[in-house]
Amino acid sequence: xxxxxxxxxxxxxxxxxxxxxxxxxxxxxxxxxxxxxxxxxxxxxxxxxxxxxxxxxxxxxxxxxxxxxxxxxxxxxxxxxxxxxxxxxxxxxxxxxxxxxxxxxxxxxxxxxxxxxxxxxxxxxxxxxxxxxxxxxxxxxxxxxxxxxxxxxxxxxxxxxxxxxxxxxxxxx
Length: 173
Ligand code: ADP
Ligand code: MG
What we know:
With 173 residues, the chain is α/β, with parallel strands linked by helices. It contains seven helices and five strands, in the order βαβααβαβααβα. It has one domain: P-loop containing nucleotide triphosphate hydrolases (Rossmann fold), CATH 3.40.50. It binds adenosine-5'-diphosphate and magnesium ion.
């Protein structure tokens, strides 16, 4: 039985992209907490935040995290999942947590090149690079605290996957 793998990191670090590739490489299932939440609630995250506020969204996010956690799952999480002490502890205790770490310029470049389709309201209403910089500054320590492994997510997806596989093999050795 393989423990679930939780991918954490800022918006644009590649949790969804790398998670899908990792799941395929490992013969695991892939699930994205944001997609799961939206499918289950039949609403977009933007709608949920508008109706229920960020607190309402965060409560649903914790429920989603618990619901999708199962053996042999690769779980891509939302960027703010680590804000909750409970979520950080839950992931560490129930699986292997990997932080996809990339610098601000890389994250901002990806978000500018591929704006999300209105899924997430901006967190601060500021320009992308400024927002990414502020969000990363406030969350980097929490990502590191939650993570069993930190990988370089500025590399091409295949290399990120290879780095994660190497870390997981070390864990099983
Ligand atoms: P997240 O789920 O962490 O928000 P995504 O996987 O949705 O990030 O990736 C955001 C954007 O960046 C997508 O357009 C994706 O194609 C691109 N991307 C993700 N990972 C990489 C990578 N390692 N190298 C280059 N582009 C990437
Ligand atoms: Mg994603």
